[in-house]
Amino acid sequence: MQPGNKKLWRFLGSWAINTLAVMIAARILHNHITYDDKLANLLVASLLLGILNAFVRPILMFIALPLLIFTLGLFTFVINALLLYFVGYLLNPYFHVDFFRYAFLGALIISVVSAALNVLTGNARVSVHKQPPPNPPKDSGGGGPVIDV
């Protein structure tokens, strides 16, 4: 497979996972995050959310860096909720989010579902590699380094 095709398939897979995650969030919060039951509108909403996550989210993360540090990264959920609420605002008749608190819950659901689906499909960005512990240094018979004061 050519490198361009590989990138295209990765993008389409990521878009499908994002669309499924948005659909699950809309089903769980069915009266508060709504779309008009057309797959095309859901695809557009998830594409717009992905574009905002790719381009606007890093800028918002940089601006909110002190809050991110202070909250140990939990403010990321607020940024995700803002982006989801903004998508609902832009696509209002076709995709709608009632209030910010439902955008926050929807962003939590989308994050969890996306992470689970990315792990299941092998698209996870984070991987854990186990390495053997380092060999202890060979010393000359002592119990370790000695510091004289």
Overview of this protein structure:
The structure is a single chain. The protein has one domain. The longest helix is centred in the first third of the chain and has 26 residues. The radius of gyration is 22 Å and the shape is extended. It contains five helices and two strands; from the N terminus they run αβαααβα. It has 149 residues and is mainly α.
The total of helices stands at 5
| Tally of individual domains | 1
What separation lies between the terminal Cα atoms?
Answer: 64 Å
Number of strands: 2
- Element string (H = helix, E = strand): HEHHHEH
The helicity comes to 55-70%
Query: What general form does the structure show?
Result: extended
Strand order of the largest sheet: 1-2
Strand proportion, as a percent range, falls in under 5%
Mean pLDDT, as a whole number?
A: 88
Helix-strand makeup class: mainly alpha
Uncertain segments = none
Radius of gyration: 22 Å
Summarize the main sheet.
2 strands, antiparallel
Task: Sum up the structure in keywords.
5 helices; two-stranded antiparallel ribbon; mainly alpha; 149 residues
SSE layout and pairings?
Layout: H1 3-28, E1 33-35, H2 39-63, H3 65-70, H4 75-90, E2 95-97, H5 100-121
Antiparallel strand pairs: 1-2
Gist of the model:
With 149 residues, the chain is mainly alpha-helical. The chain has helices at residues 3-28, 39-63, 65-70, 75-90, 100-121, and strands spanning 33-35, 95-97.
